Amino acid sequence: MNWRLLLGVVLLLAAVVTGWSAWKMRGRDAVATGGGERSDYVLRDFELVVLGKDGSETVRVQSPELQRRDDESMDVAEPVFLTPAEPGPWKLTAERGWISPDGELLRLDGSVSGDSDPASPAPTKFRTDSLELLPGQDLARTDKAVSLSRPGLSQTGTGMEANLKTRQYRLLSQVRTRYEPSARP
Questions:
Q1: Please, one GO biological process term (predicted)?
Q2: 183 falls in which pLDDT band (50, 70, 90)?
Q3: Could you tell me if 72 and 149 lie in one domain?
Q4: How far apart are the first and last CA of the chain?
Q5: Higher pLDDT, 101 or 85
Q6: Is residue 125 part of a domain?
Q7: Which stretch of DSSP H or E encloses residue 15?
Q8: b/e for 77-108, b at 16 or more Cβ within 10 A?
Q9: Which residues face 184 on adjacent strands?
Q10: Do the Cβ atoms of 66 and 42 come closer than 8 Å?
Q11: 10 within a domain of the structure (yes/no)
Q12: What is the C-alpha to C-alpha distance for residues 135 and 8, in angstroms, rounded to an integer?
């Protein structure tokens, strides 16, 4: 047998095996990368400070994981948002969060809780399923069911708008209020 013929047969077999292997592998790549948008980058166990146009802090974010998407929005796992206020910051937590590309809108979804600083004159707590936060306007809003409590007062309703800086809030519909007088010593 001629060595050139043998080399040609070996090269032909190698080309057939390589082509067949590439054909079989192409389906796997499509499944691995076709599962949605890909992240630009991922941050783990981080704290992020968002500044306003004037350079002042508008919100602080802490989370075990953040993923920045191709459209420059960010998905946040188990976020803790701290919004500046006097005497102390509001603490907003949720199962999931989303930050718009320009940082002007934050969404919190799943077991959302908002707690004012315990040292404030009337410490306030609210609970809902979904909340939008506009840090530049110190505004939090939702159209979902909300429960709100302060010392001596418990309220439920559907929809809420709250100014986190001035601690003024407004329940929008189906409001039920219960006054709970404090016990006298």
A1: Gram-negative-bacterium-type cell outer membrane assembly
A2: low
A3: yes
A4: 110
A5: 101
A6: yes
A7: helix 3-33
A8: eebbbbbbbeeebbbbbbebbbbeeebeebbb
A9: none
A10: yes
A11: yes
A12: 70
Same domain, 83 and 153: yes
Tell me whether residue 185 is in a domain: no
Q: Both tokens of residue 11?
A: 């090269």
Tokens 């166990």 belong to: 45
Structure confidence at residue 108 as a pLDDT band (50, 70, 90): very high
For residue 124 the two structure tokens come to 């306030």
What's the CA gap between 125 and 147, in Å, rounded?
A: 8
- CATH code at position 164: 2.60.450.10
Question: pLDDT per residue over 22-43, tens digit each?
Answer: 777 776 544 444 445 566 788 8
150 shares a domain with 166: yes
pLDDT at 87: 75
**pTM score of the predicted model:** 0.69
What residue numbers bound the domain in which 16 lies? 1-36
Q: How far apart are CA 161 and CA 10, in angstroms?
A: 75
Mean of the pLDDT values across residues 139-160? 91
Domain identity same for 60 and 29: no
The 3-state DSSP class for residue 28 equals helix
Position 9 scores a pLDDT of: 79
Q: Domain count of the chain?
A: 2
